[in-house]
Amino acid sequence: MADISKIRNFSIIAHIDHGKSTLADRLILRTGGLSEREMTHGQVLDNMEIEQERGITIKAQTVRLEWNGYELNLMDTPGHVDFAYEVSRSLAACEGALLVVDAAQGVEAQTLANVYQSIEHDHEIVPVINKIDLPAADPEGVRQEIEEIIGLDASEAVLASAKSGIGIDEVLQAIVDRIPPPKGDRDAPLKAMLVDSWYDPYLGVVILVRVIDGVLKKGQQVKFMQAGTTHLIDRVGCMRPKIEQLPELSAGEIGFITAQIKEVAETRVGDTITDAKRPAPAPLPGFKEVQPVVFCGLFPVDAADFEKLRESLYKLRLNDASFSFETESSAALGFGFRCGFLGLLHLEIIQERLTREYDLDLITTAPSVVYRMHLTHSKNEPAQVIELHNPADMPDPNRIEMIEEPWIEATIYTPDEYLGPILKLCQDRRGIQKNLTYVGTGAHQRAQVTYELPLNEVVFDFYDRLKSITRGYASFDYHQIGHREGDLVKMSILVNEEPVDALSMITHRGTAEARGRGMCERLKDLIPRHMFKIPIQAAIGGKVIARETISALRKDVTAKCYGGDATRKRKLLEKQKKGKARMREYGNVSIPQEAFIAALRMGDES
After folding, report:
1. Residues tagged in the binding site annotation
2. Dist CA 531 CA 581 (whole Å)
C-alpha cells in the first residue's frame, strides 16, 4: 500500500525533438527500471516501429519509477501539434510537468501550446534546459527566454543533458521537491479516470487509469459511468516499463487494469470508473471530445482487399480514439472509406501503419476540410445548413446561398532572415496578419508572427513549404477559430471528358485556375499515352479553366508507300484518323494508380 505523500505523478512536455523521450530513458535507467543491456534501442517508450524511425512520440506512454523511497509515475507525451489531444489526456492525470527546452533552439511554438495546456490544469512546472553539452548551447539565453515568453521563473531551472546523463539526479530531486503529491482519499468510494486504452492480443483491452479516490483491486466489480457497462477486474498492475502485477492501486496512483474487454470502443477515454456496489456520486469532468479536422478517402488498390481494410481500420481505431471512418464509394476507385484525422501527420501515420502493419496497398484522395453549406429554400426542401466532408457530394451550386470554411490562428516562430518568405507564403495562402513581435535577445532573437489562415490552404503542403523556406528553423502551431464565409468553388478534373471524382476538390475562386492548370500538367506527364488523343480538363461547373492534351500513339501506316502518289498516303492517314476518332468514343482511359497518388500529392504549385 503506497503512502500518498510519497507519490509524484508528472508528465514531460516539450516541442518536437527537444529530447523528452531521451530524458525519459535516462530516468528509467537511473532509477533501475531497466539495465543498460535491456536498453537495446533508444526511446524505450516509443515502441511503435514508426515512432522509432521518425524519432517522434505518437502515443503517450507511462512508466513507474522508484527513487529514494518515492514512487514516480512518468508520462512521456507527444510534441507534435497533431497529437495535442494525447498531451491533454496525459496532463489530466498528473500534478506537475517537466518542461524540456533545448539549450540551443530555445522556446518554440509547440513548447508554448503545451505549457499553456499544463497551466490550465494548474500544474507545477519544472523547467529543464536540455542538451547543455552542445557547442551551440546558450543556457542563460534560454533561461531568459523562458521567463520572457512563458512568464515562468527559470532561476531554478535544472541544467541537463539527457544524452550524456548530466544532471539526471538533479532532475529527479526537483521532481520530488517541487511537484506536489496527489490529493485523494483511500477510504472514499472508488473514482478512477480512464486515461488511455489499447488492445493487447494476449490480455485483451488494457486500460490505463489514474485512481483519484478509493482502491482498485483484482476481482472487483467496476462500472464505467459514461458507457454504463460493468466489468470484473482480472488484473491490476503497473509498467516499470515491463508489466508488473500488483494486488491493488490506491488513491493517487497510476497503473493499468484488464477486465476481459474485447473492444476498445467500449472504453471511452475520459470515462470515470467506479465500484459497481458502492458507486461515486458524480463522474469526473472528463475530456472534450476530439474533432477530426482533415478528411480524406482511403481506397484499396485491389478491390478484393476491401474487407481486410475494414478490419485493419477497426483494429487501428482500437488504439486511436481520435480517428474516425465511414464507408464511401467512388466511380474511379471503387469501395473505400472516408476517414477523419487530427491533421496531416496523423493521416500520414495512419496510412503508413496500414501499409506496414497490415500489408495493404492504398490510394489516398486529396485531403479536404469540413465545409458548412448554407442551402436556400426550394419547393422540395427547406433552407438548411449541411456539413460537407467530401467534395464529390457537393450539392447543386444554384441551391448554395453561401459556403463557410474553417479558419485557424497560426503562430510561427522564425529567425529574422526567413521572415520575408514566410510572410509571402502566408499572403499567398490568403492569410491575414494579426501580429508581429520579436522575442529573445542577441543571437537568440526571433520573430513571432501570428496569422489567421483558412485551414484548407494549410492542409495541403503548408507545413512542408514552411520547413523548406526556413531550412527547418521555423516552428509552427495552430488552433481553430471557427468558420467564415469564403468564395469557394468545386473544381472537377475530366479525363477524356469523363469526370474523375477522386480528383475533384473545393478551392478558392482566386486560386482555382492555377491549381487546375497545375493538376492538368501533372496528369499529362503521369497518364500513359493511348492509341487515341486524350484531353485532360479542369472545370468549374460547365466552364473549362485549363486543358492539356495527351497525343496519341501512332503506327506509321505510310511506311510501305515510297515515292509515287501523295493521295494514297493521304487516304491511309485519313483512314487511320477515323479509326482513332472511333477508338476514342469507345476507348476508356486507364489511369494508373501511381498517377492518382502523384497527382494528389500537391507539391509546389509555383
Report:
1. 17-22, 130-133
2. 10
CA pseudo-torsion sign 304, 307, 311, 314: positive
Residue type (1 letter), 70: Y
pLDDT band at 144 (very low <50, low <70, confident <90, very high): confident
Task: Answer for the pair 138, 168: CB distance below 8 angstroms, yes or no.
Answer: no
Q: What is the DSSP string of 491-511?
A: EEEEETTEE-GGG-EEEEHHH
Contact partners, residue 450, CB within 8 Å, separation at least 6: 409, 410, 411, 412, 433, 434, 435, 436
Same domain flag for 437 and 387: yes
User: Would you place residue 201 in the very low, low, confident or very high pLDDT band (cuts 50, 70, 90)?
Assistant: confident
Dihedral angle of Cα 388, 394, 398, 404, to the nearest 10 degrees: 30
pTM: 0.63
Q: Which residues span the domain enclosing 380?
A: 371-486
Three cell numbers written together for 280 = 461515486
CA distance 446 to 470: 13
Three-class SS of 299-315:
EECCHHHHHHHHHHHHH
Are 329 and 378 in a shared domain?
A: no
Question: Length of the chain in residues, anyone?
Answer: 606
Measured CA to CA, the distance from residue 34 to residue 47 in angstroms comes to 15
Q: What is the DSSP string of 282-305?
A: S-----PPP---EEEEEEESSGGG
Same domain? 134 vs 158 = yes
Nearest to 78 by CA among 14, 123, 141, 23: 14
Domain identity same for 409 and 509: no
Look at the chain and report how many structural domains it folds into: 5
243-284 pLDDT, tens digit per residue, is: 778 888 888 888 888 887 776 667 777 778 888 888 778 777
Instruction: In whole angstroms, give the CA distance from residue 341 to residue 190.
Output: 34
**Three cell numbers written together for 113:** 501550446
Sign of CA dihedral 579, 581, 582, 583: positive
Residues 332 and 418 in one domain: no
Q: Which ranges constitute the DSSP H helices of 106-160?
A: 109-120, 139-145
Q: Which residues are annotated as a binding site for GTP?
A: 17-22, 130-133
Residues 412 and 547 in one domain: no
Contact 467, 418 (CB under 8 A): no
3-state helix, strand, coil in the chain (%, to 5): 30, 35, 35
What residues pair up with 535 in beta bridges, in sequence order? 549
What letter would DSSP give residue 347? H
* Residues 170 and 71 grouped into a single domain: yes
Express each pLDDT in 6-57 by its tens digit: 888 888 877 777 777 778 778 777 776 555 555 544 444 444 444 444 444 4
Which residue(s) pair with 362 in the sheet?
300
* pLDDT score of 601 more than 70: no
Whole-number Å distance between alpha carbons of 263 and 205: 7
Report DSSP state, residue 206.
E
Is the confidence at residue 588, as pLDDT, over 70? no
Q: Are residues 361 and 315 in the same domain?
A: yes
d(CA 493, CA 451): 32
Gap between the Cα atoms of 362 and 313, Å rounded:
12
